[in-house]
Amino acid sequence: MLNLKLLATKDDLKEATMIEQRRRFEGDRKKRIFNARERIIGVDKEALDQQITEKQKLAQEQAEKERKFLAEQERVNAIALEKERQLMMEKRRIFNEINDFRNKFQRPEDRREFDLYDPQGKRKDLPARLSDGDPRLTVSSAQKFEGEDLASMERKKAQIDQQKAWLEQQMKEKKEAEEFRKKAEEEQHEALIAREQRTLELQRTERQGKQKMLAAITQFNKELAFEQENRRKIHSQQEQEDNLAEQLNHITSDILTEAPHAEKSNFGPHRIVPYTYRRMTTHQIDELKNGQISQLHERQQIRSEKESVEKEWESLSENVSRAMSLIERDEIRKRRHQIMRIRQENQELAGEQNRIRHHIEKNVYTNEPTEAYYQMFNTTSR
């Protein structure tokens, strides 16, 4: 017998596996969907509540375990830290004891070979040459040579004496300079005193001159004031005379006397001088009244013409309104006829639709669905 598995490829096996998996999934889905009990009654709520309670209880127990574990872990950590601290203190104590023992009994200067690496060894040794008479200064010592300055001490002493003489000379010169400075200051002070006295004398002379000048200025001001007073009196008298003359001129002028010839202007007979004009003449008043009467007649004529025009416009507007009302009535009548026609057409269309619906219900839709028709549905979960 031929084994089909040997002929199937890897893709075929994979596809067959997928098909089988879809079939199982579809079967499980049908069980869930077509289960009338679960669809109508629903799931077991008490069981679900019990499961939730159990889960919560387990969660609480797990949380309690974790809390205890953390507490135990903290306690163990604290113990470990304390042990570590004690160990470090013990190590530090041992290290300090070792250092104390070394400082007391194993010092470097107590060793036999300390002189070989003593850091202060060079300071403790004698210098290579203490003086020129040092017995260690042999030929092979290479410390004393011919031509050296052996009289350096005497030379330094002579230099010190010379510096001392120089200092004494400088002190003497400084003292002389100080005396010269003091003498110069005294002379300068005397010169300042003399100059101040001269300044005071000049100020006194200047003050006397100013006093004389002020006296002369005061006398001059008095004379000038007297002269100005005389001028003021003369000017006041002249001003009074001018005022009297001006008053007389005003009294006798054309303005106050109202002379008729004073109103006429030199620029034309129809023009007048504004500041001399007083009133209108009788002839001028009559001309003004006649002009007003003529203006009144003209205004009345214009008003009558305006009223006639307004009456014509009113009659025209009435005629237009009457024509518009007739047109509107005609439009309303036409609209009413149109509505009646549309209503009749709608009634005819409604009757036609009723006949068509009756034909469809009685003649077209005559087949009734059988039980086999309903069996075609709900056969799959899709």
UniProtKB/TrEMBL annotation:
Keywords: Cell projection, Cilium, Coiled coil, Cytoplasm, Cytoskeleton, Flagellum. InterPro entries: RIB43A. Residues 150-197, 299-362 form a coiled coil. It is found in: Cytoplasm, Cytoskeleton, Flagellum axoneme. Residues 117-135 have a biased composition (Basic and acidic residues). The keyword Transcription does not apply. Residues 117-136 are annotated as: Disordered. Microtubule inner protein component of sperm flagellar doublet microtubules. Belongs to the RIB43A family. PANTHER family: RE41410P (PTHR14517:SF6), RIB43A-RELATED (PTHR14517). This is CSON007023 protein. It comes from Culicoides sonorensis (Biting midge). The gene is CSON007023.
